Amino acid sequence: MRIAIGVLAVLLGTSAARAEWMNGDHLFRACNLESSAGNALVMGYIQGIEDASSVPTNIEGLRYCLPDNTNSGQLKNLICAWLRANPGRRHLKGSDVVKQTLTETWPCM
């Protein structure tokens, strides 16, 4: 429990003035933590964004359709890889990072 609180403090402490709770930089730092707390934070955040969206979704022009067998570990790996490949976009809101990655990976046909 103390580890999880510490992880959240580190991730959130640097941008208290920003309106969003999580941005791409926060997600990227959590992706690189070698702890179950960091892993749980990223997977939980991604699942929350996905659960809040209906499938298929079309939010702000971003449309994606997840395959039926997609799991949370796969989503985490996908988002973390996107953040590694797109360092100039880590300033985006975390929800936008998730939606952009899913749209690029699984666009609705």
How is the secondary structure organized here?
Layout: H1 2-13, H2 24-31, H3 36-52, E1 57-59, E2 62-64, H4 72-85, H5 94-105
Antiparallel strand pairs: 1-2
What descriptors fit this protein?
10k-s Protein, Hypothetical Protein A, Chain A; 109 residues; two-stranded antiparallel sheet
Explain the overall architecture.
With 109 residues, the chain is mostly helical. The chain is built from 5 helices and 2 strands. A two-stranded antiparallel sheet has the order 1-2. 25% of the residues are buried. Residues 4-19 have low confidence and may be disordered.
**Major sheet details:** 2 strands, antiparallel
Low-confidence segments:
4-19
Query: C-alpha Rg, in Å?
Result: 14 Å
Task: Tell me the name of the CATH class.
Answer: Mainly Alpha
CATH architecture: Orthogonal Bundle
Oligomerization:
single chain
Compact overview of the structure:
By secondary structure, the protein is mainly alpha-helical. It is 58% helix and 6% strand.
